[in-house]
Here is the input.
Amino acid sequence: MSGALHTYRKVIALTGPVLPVVSFLGRLPTAMCQLGSVLLVAETSGSLATAGLAGGALALGQTVGGPLLGRTADRHGQRTVVLVAALVNAVAVTALVVAALAHAGTGWLVLLGALAGASVPQVGPLARTRTVALARRAGADERTVAAALSFEGTLDEVSFVLGPAFVGLAAALAHPAVALLAAAWLLAVCGTGFALHPTAGQVMAEERVWAPRTRLPSAAYALRVTMVLQGAMFGASQAGITALTERLGQPSQTGLVYAAMGVMSAAAGLAMVAVPERLALRARWRIATAALVVLSVPLLFVGSLGTLYGVVVVLGVAYAPHLITLFALTERIVPAARLAESMAFLTSGIVGGQALALALSGRLAEEHGPGAAFAVMVVAGALCAVLSWSVRGVADAGPPHDTLAAQPQPQPQPHPLTPGVAAPPGSVPRG
Here is the structure.
């Protein structure tokens, strides 16, 4: 335990104590807006169909817009990209609230939902990219890089547990509009803070602006598909848990059950730093996907609330390790000039897979019971396992840019093409 704490202290030393706080609060609105938009539109329009369209548009916007924003950050640096996106997103979310309260037409709600999704500033993926870049530039060892990924993964997990909980609490005590307006405020303040934090300038790589666009290895696309399937597991489990708690006459327990799974997942993510380095990433991937399948199968046979809690808590142990391993594999195999884009693709894949699976498994659960939704979840997990055994190109993936990680980094020198801007250490395209 003391070794793990020491490693996490090294991660915090790389970023400073302020950045994790700002990045956590800056990514919290992402977890709030999906559910918040559905609850808000459902209450103001009285139509679940309209609410579903607005929420679906938001998810689609984020799925499409996230990778584009990540690509732009790769090319031009995070500072300006995140600053503009955070402010646009705050305005879009506020406009969605105003339109819903004014009983605007479905078309306007869908349009504003899509804009709110497309402008999500991607604080989570970019924070992960930034922290890893700082670790690599400092010559950190692989355990520290792995701890950085575990730490960022845990922040994601906690945000996706607390975000919906805050929305539900605000909706119960006041109005869903309160939750979305709070999300807009967090976006404006903490998104701006994340953009302007000094580390944004430290990881700006001018060579990415001038270097030609590099190709991705085929394995990177397989990892993206796997992340979509992981999102499908989230969506199917959400539908199944909702259907089962309603059947048991305990609908108020839905959020608590899902939160219990998220808390256990976050704890497992923090514990990943204790995994021995000799256990290769590919082996970790296979173990994690096998756990997803084995631990999700019992959901097909759950018939009581107590058993449901027990099963999802155990299942949560597999989630974060799988996600963290996918991020780590991606960091290993993609060129640095496309790292932010790739991280954003993974996060957007979760959102897209979750939205699609929720729509499909929700209907199946309505027609055939919660077991049908859980079956979708098991199938998605099985496909993840198949990919982990069949994908080539990740088995021997070593640390990217070994020379950069192993050698002392020179002091930044003035960039020859940009007066007054420091060129990053080791200014060579990494591909």
User: Anything to note?
Assistant: The domain at 1-209 is CATH 1.20.1250.20 (Growth Hormone; Chain: A;).
